[in-house]
Design a protein that fits this description.
Elements (H helix, E strand, L loop, with lengths): L2 H17 L1 H35 L3 E6 L5 H13 L3 E7 L1 H12 L5 H4 L8 E6 L5 H9 L4 E5 L2 H43 L1 H9 L4 H40 L11 H25 L5
Antiparallel strand pairs: 1-3, 1-4, 2-3
Helix pairs in contact: 1-2, 1-9, 2-7, 2-9, 7-9, 7-10, 9-10
Length: about 290
C-alpha cells in the first residue's frame, strides 16, 4: 500500500471523527471511565494480594535434633538455603526459645523457675516465599538430616490460597465485563459513522475496492478513539490512585507504588485501548459490505 493510500485512509478516519465530534468525545469519555475503573480495580486487587501475602502465616519453624553440633547446624542451614523457596532464615537457640515462651505467657505464672533452656529445642525459623510450592518445599525439608520436628500452619496457607484464587477470578470477571462494555461503546460510535457513509461504501465495493481497504478507515477511527482514551485513562488513573486510593490503602499496609508499575500500565492503556477500538470497529462495517 502506497503512502498516498495510507494518507487518504488516515484523513478519512480523522474526517469521520470530526464529522461525529460529539459522539467521538462521548465515546472517548465513556471508554476512559471504563479503562480507569479497570485499572484502579486491578491495582486494588494487586494490593490486596500483596496484603494477603504480607499477613499470611507462611513462617515455619524446624526444630533441630538435640545431638547436632554448631557445624551440623551451619551445614543444615546451607542445605535449607539451597532448596530455593525459603527466605529470612533465623536461628533460635534454646535460651532464646525459653525467653520467648516466658514473654508470651507473661510474668507471675511461676513458670520461670520450673523451666530451663534444655526443655526447648534450637530451631531454624524461616518463611516460604512461593506458597504455591508449600507442600513441595516441606517435602524437601523433611528429607534433610537433623530435622526433629516441624511447626507449620497448613490450614492458614490453604485459606490464603483460596483468597488469592477468589481475587484472581474476580479480576478476570472485571476485565471481561469492562472489555465488553468498551467494545460496545466503540461499536456504536463507528456504527453511526458507517451508516452516514453507507452509499459511499457501496460505491467503493462496486468499483472493486477490497473489503480490507474499505474497512481500514474505520479500524483507524476505532484505534484513534481507543488510543486517546487509553492515554487519558493513564493520567486519570495516575491521579486517582496516588491522590485517593494510595492514602486509603496506606492506613492498612504499604501499598504498591504506581510508578513501579509503569512498564505494565503504559503499554496496557496504549495497546489495550487501541485493540478495543479496532475490535469494536470490525462488526459495524460488515453489514454494508454485502452488496
Amino acid at each position: 500500500m502506497s503512502f498516498d493510500s495510507l494518507w487518504f485512509l488516515l484523513k478519512s478516519a480523522l474526517n469521520n471523527l470530526y464529522r461525529n465530534l460529539l459522539l467521538t468525545v462521548a465515546s472517548v469519555t465513556v471508554l476512559t471511565i471504563c479503562l480507569t475503573l479497570l485499572g484502579c480495580t486491578s491495582m486494588v486487587i494487586q494490593n490486596v494480594n500483596a496484603f494477603v501475602d504480607e499477613i499470611g502465616e507462611s513462617r515455619i519453624a524446624v526444630f533441630l535434633d538435640e545431638n547436632m553440633t554448631e557445624l551440623d547446624i551451619a551445614r543444615f542451614r546451607n542445605e535449607l538455603t539451597e532448596i530455593g523457596n525459603v527466605g529470612d532464615i533465623h536461628y533460635e537457640t534454646k535460651e532464646q526459645a525459653l525467653a520467648n515462651y516466658l514473654e508470651s505467657i507473661g510474668s507471675g505464672t511461676g513458670m520461670e523457675d520450673a523451666l530451663d533452656a534444655d526443655t526447648f529445642r534450637a530451631s531454624l525459623i524461616f518463611e516460604i516465599i512461593d506458597l504455591s510450592k508449600y507442600d513441595q518445599t516441606l517435602y524437601e525439608i523433611r528429607k534433610m538430616d537433623g530435622v526433629g520436628d516441624i511447626q507449620e500452619r497448613r490450614d492458614v496457607v490453604d485459606k490464603i490460597q483460596q483468597v488469592k484464587q477468589a481475587l484472581f477470578f474476580l479480576s478476570v470477571l472485571v476485565i471481561f465485563l469492562f472489555f465488553i462494555v468498551s467494545v460496545f461503546i466503540i461499536m456504536n460510535s463507528v456504527k453511526l459513522s458507517v451508516y452516514a457513509r453507507r452509499l459511499e461504501i457501496n460505491i467503493m465495493k462496486y468499483v472493486g475496492a477490497t473489503d480490507f481497504f474499505i474497512q481500514l478507515p474505520y479500524f483507524i477511527e476505532g484505534m484513534i478513539i481507543g488510543l486517546i482514551a487509553g492515554i487519558v485513562s493513564f493520567f486519570v488513573q495516575f491521579y486517582v490512585y496516588n491522590a485517593v486510593l494510595y492514602p486509603l490503602l496506606a492506613e492498612l499496609f504499604t501499598p504498591i507504588s504506581f510508578l513501579s508499575q509503569l512498564s505494565f500500565w503504559v503499554p496496557f492503556f496504549a495497546i489495550g485501548g487501541s485493540l478495543i477500538g479496532i475490535i469494536g470497529s470490525v462488526y459495524p462495517v460488515k453489514k454494508y459490505l454485502k452488496v
